[in-house]
Write a structure and sequence with these properties.
- The protein has five helices and no strands.
- The chain is mostly helical.
- The longest helix has 16 residues.
- The protein is globular, with a radius of gyration of 14 Å.
- The termini are far apart.
- It comes from Durusdinium trenchii.
- This is Protein C10.
Length: about 120
């Protein structure tokens, strides 16, 4: 495993937005529904198949931010992100990401906080 990148809060928020977009894609949501029909929801019965599905999105996004592919990159991302656990926007976005990955369908009214292009 290589060393974790040193990301700013804005970069972490951008990463969260990209992951959310990937988890919200109709193809991902359909694959998640099919998986849940077999194994149940990830938060109730997490399996290797869930990991494989989540990595289809994570492996596209994480390397763009300097993380490894696979579970090693996910663990790196979680470690870097933990530095921002006291940031309200980060925590709100994290909750939405968890919802997108654990539910078979996203709520219509979910409003993901897109990063402020000014960086503020």
């Amino acid at each position: 495993m290589s060393s974790s990148p040193d990301l700013t809060l804005q970069e972490v928020l951008d990463l969260q937005a990209e992951l959310y977009d990937g988890f919200s894609e109709p193809e991902f949501q359909e694959a998640l529904r099919e998986l849940e029909a077999i194994h149940g929801k990830a938060y109730r019965n997490y399996t290797d198949d869930h990991t494989k599905l989540f990595l289809t999105v994570q492996n596209k996004v994480l390397p763009r931010y300097g993380f490894d592919k696979g579970q090693a990159g996910v663990l790196q991302m979680l470690s870097v992100g933990a530095r921002y656990n006291d940031n309200e926007e980060f925590c709100s976005n994290r909750a939405l990401l968890n919802e997108a990955a654990a539910r078979f369908q996203l709520a219509e009214d979910v409003d993901f906080k897109q990063p402020d292009p000014s960086g503020m």
